[in-house]
Design goal:
Blueprint lengths: L8 E5 L4 H12 L3 E6 L3 H11 L3 E5 L5 H15 L4 E4 L13 H29 L2 E6 L3 H4 L6 H21 L4 E8 L2 E2 L8 H10 L6 E2 H12 L10 E4 L7
Parallel strand pairs: 1-2, 1-4, 2-3, 4-5, 5-6, 6-9, 7-8
The protein binds NADP nicotinamide-adenine-dinucleotide phosphate.
NADP nicotinamide-adenine-dinucleotide phosphate binds next to helix 1 and helix 4.
Length: about 250
């Protein structure tokens, strides 16, 4: 079956790095028009723009700020006339334990949870106007395991994404919009670069598929969930972890 994604307009928060950037490349290849919303999107914009400059746009901003989340959606519609798919990949990883500062706690939840909600709320309102849409959120395997190195703020934020995804799926379903969460396992990106090589090797050894994930492994599932073939999947949680955690 064809993906049916040609000419769809996609907004990707955190689209300048890791999973977001790999998703942008994969969706551009499917014929989508792409908007990257990130803190520093210039290098990614230049890379994708070299492939098809007329189909790529970037919004520089902090999606944890309500007005900037709304602006990302508004600029997408202004630039390409619509918004069909939202991928909420912007996020921060936090390893500090319960001794973390109040500011660290609040910042992690503001970016990972509130930023996701505010972008999704504005996007669903736009998608509902034309009765079709896809929202794809990024949770984590840590929501199931309680986290390895990840601290309580990160684990809480990624667990909250699961509840948010189900609630948004109920709200958006009658408008023809699906909302699903991907739960990546260990994926090699700039976010996980700092994890010690020995720990990365230990995860690889415990993983049934005997390798760590790549951003392209997640991007392939983003394309699948955005595609026409995923039209009856909503409120779902998709593990993409090489079998490290099964449930
Ligand atoms: P990444 O390479 O660090 O990409 C995240 C992007 O989000 C970066 O470009 C970052 O910008 C941007 N960002 C951070 N805060 C932002 C804000 N307030 N507003 C706008 N953009 C912001 O990370 P990744 O590994 O691709 O992770 C993507 C998502 O997958 C995250 O939600 C993460 O929690 C989730 N995830 C990743 C893994 C993994 O193993 N990699 C596993 C489970 C879940 P800067 O770099 O400039 O800060």
């Amino acid at each position: 079956m064809k993906t049916g994604l040609e000419n769809k307009v996609v907004l990707i928060t955190g689209g300048a790095s890791g999973i977001g950037l790999a998703s942008a490349r994969a969706l551009l290849e499917e014929g989508c028009r792409i908007v990257l919303a990130d803190l520093r999107p210039d290098a990614a914009l230049a890379e994708l723009g070299a492939l098809r400059s007329q189909d790529v746009h970037a919004v520089t901003g902090d999606i944890s700020v309500p007005d900037e989340a709304r602006r990302a959606v508004r600029e997408t519609v202004e630039r390409f006339g619509s918004l069909d798919v939202l991928v909420t990949s912007a996020g921060v990883y936090e390893t500090t334990g319960v001794e973390m500062s109040d500011e660290e706690w609040e910042r992690t939840l503001a970016i990972n949870v509130s930023g996701t909600f505010m972008c999704a709320r504005a996007a669903i309102a736009e998608m509902a106007r034309h009765g079709w849409g896809r929202v794809i959120t990024l949770s984590s395997m840590a929501a199931h395991t309680g986290g390895g190195a990840a601290g309580p703020a990160y684990v809480t934020s990624k667990s909250a994404i699961l509840g948010l995804t189900k609630s948004l799926a109920k709200h958006a379903g009658p408008h023809g919009v699906t909302v699903n969460a991907i739960l990546p396992g260990f994926i090699e990106t700039p976010m996980t670069d700092k994890i010690a090589a020995g720990d990365q090797e230990a995860i690889r050894a415990m993983t049934p598929l005997r390798r760590n994930g790549t951003a392209e492994d997640i991007a392939a599932v983003v394309v699948m969930l955005a595609s026409e073939g995923a039209r009856f999947i909503t409120g779902a949680q998709i593990n993409v972890n090489g079998g490290l955690v099964m449930d």
